[in-house]
Every structure is written in C-alpha cells, then in structure tokens.
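Contributing new records

If you add data, match the layout below exactly. Sequence lines come first and carry their own label; structure lines follow with theirs. Keep one chain per record. Anything else will be rejected by the validation script.
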Amino acid sequence: MKAIGIITDSHSSIDQKKAEELGIMVLPMPFSIGGKCYYEGVTLSREEFFQKLDSGEDITTSQPSPEEVMELWDRALKEYETVLYLPISSGLSGSCETAEILSREEAYENRVFVVDNGRVSTPMHRAVLDALELIEEGYTAAQIKEILEKNKQDMVIYIAVETLEHLKRGGRITPAAAALGTVLNVKPVLKLDVGNLDVFKKCRGFAKAKKTMIEAIKHDIETRFYEAWAKGEVTIMAAASTTEEELKAWVKEIEEAFPGMPVLSDYLSMGVSCHIGYGGLGIGCACRPKRMERE
C-alpha cells in the first residue's frame, strides 16, 4: 500500500485525463441545469456547458453529496494509507466544511486530511503540484496539510470579465449597474485573494482590463512576494473561459510581460465560469510553500 494519495475536485481545473497523468483522483463537481444534474468533465463538456450558459439556461452550482465524497475517499484508502483532500476554498463553497466534518468520522480520522488553503482553479492546480512535490520530499500527510495551509496568503489571481450578464445573475452587481456598464464598455477585474472573489477595478475596455491585471501582478511580485520572487520561487498562472487559441494568445502576452518565469495555464473551472461567463481571462501568481524543519 502506498503512503499518501491526493484527491481534489474539478474546481481545480484538473480534468480526468490530467488527473490520471498526475496519479491523483478528481471529484467531478455537480451542476443543476434545467432541473437535471450534470457532472463537470464527465457528463458535461466545456462546449456543452458554454452552449447552455449562453442560451440563458438556469445553471446553478452545488456541493457534492457526502456519499459521493466518502465513496471516493473509500476507493483511495484501499490504495493509500493516508489521503490529502484538496477541495475548493471554504470561502467560496460549503463543501470544504462538509469534508472537514466527514474527516472526523472514525473511518477517516487520521487517514483523510482536508486542506483548506483558499484556492480555486489554477491556484488549486498549483497546490496539487506542490503536494506532489512534498510527498516526494518525504513529508507526512499531516505535515503537508500544515505546510499548504500556512501558504494560504501567498497567492493571488485577477480575472477580467468580458460580459456583465453573469455577474448580474449572481447578484454581484445590480441590473442597473450591468446595463450602464454594458453601454460604457466597462470590464470588471475581479480579485481572488485567500478564498474570496471580489471586484478589484472597473476598466473601460478589455485591453485596459488585461493591462490592469498584468500591472497588478507586477506590483504584487515587487511588494508582497518579492522575497519569494528573488529566490525564483514564484509561479505565474494563466486561466481563461475562452477558446484554446485565445488562452494561448493570453499566455504569450503574459510570457512577454514576465520573461523567463514559468507560466502554469488552465481553462477556468466551470464553477468559476458559471459566474463570469464566456471570454474571461485570469492571471495570478503563487509562491512555493515554505518547508518545515523535520527531526
């Protein structure tokens, strides 16, 4: 039996194929569309998702059931002595708190370690990669949970929104503000910091929004994350709810702005895309977790 397994959920932007390559498990998130339940990347593709979203269908995200979570944990525990479970941030969903409660049950106590480090989408993907590195370095599951959660503050992501319609539907802006913003070509930039998604700045036009995000990341690297950046321990992240071609163009733009720095890129998870719609672009950075001393 192997020592430590990793499970995340599809809010990490890691699909089932990539999960198999990494040697991890991914719990697909459920969506309710027109009263029917779909599972991200399993019974619902990105193309189908955006078709339904753009057609105005009523789409709501929901938590996985406790039974679905425990079933995956049980499968993993047949193969691994302990399991690290990295779900979406508790600041964005109640599924993390539910998992914490489940992990205290006798069958999972000291065997399943739930990591709440404020992540979603590509930062969550980065955390999974960090966990894999820590396993290779010989840390225990309990130690990795502690290391990743202490790394919570060392990440930020900005997302530019092409349309205001989905922010209006989600109640983040009023219908009047959405209508006025559309007329004035306002493109909000959202900021994800320690698990909370808020409006960072409103820009006139998408080109301005992209420039604002790149400048914000440069500022964060030069201030908050300077020490890690000086050591070469910062990863730049890119994400998009767009086509593959548009994502590649965005990554190229980021690489030109940050020459020589590694860029981890993903499609934004459907859970995030549901709230921002098609055409969103994101950029962020995350620091390598600080290691703890071991005896």
